[in-house]
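Board work, copied verbatim: Histidyl-tRNA synthetase
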Amino acid sequence: MKYRRLTKEQFEELHQEFINFLATQSVTADEWTNLKANKPEMAEMELDVFSDLIWEGVLNKAEYLEHISPQHLYLFHLDEDEMHALVINLKNDVDITTEEGYNWLRDNLMDENVEFLQADKAYTKDKNLDKFKMIEQGAVITKGDLFKYFDKIIS
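↓ predict structure ↓
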């Protein structure tokens, strides 16, 4: 398994897609029931293969990631060849994960306690695995609104 198995909730959400996946493997509903009961390791393998396929599709489409912590805002634009990072560091005790803290940041972007950093980073041999590791560390896929907003301010 390249990534990680989807959660029970994710499988429930993707129920129809999983049925279609099994159909492409020529596995009927009865055969799936039999597989789960009599060859659970084979059923587990099918779940893992399906999970990897879903992750590949999601990661191929991901263009922006965000990771917000109390004093840091990490924003990533995932280009074809490299990722572009914008980092906003707070040098005070304002917690931007709260509404009050985020509003403070928005109103005080030029404050001496707000630091902007930019960097570009090449992917390793496996671009999607790089993206996945960031997600596993707490980043979420977004439409890039925050990245675009701060990119205009910094540029």
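Residues 8-61 form one domain.
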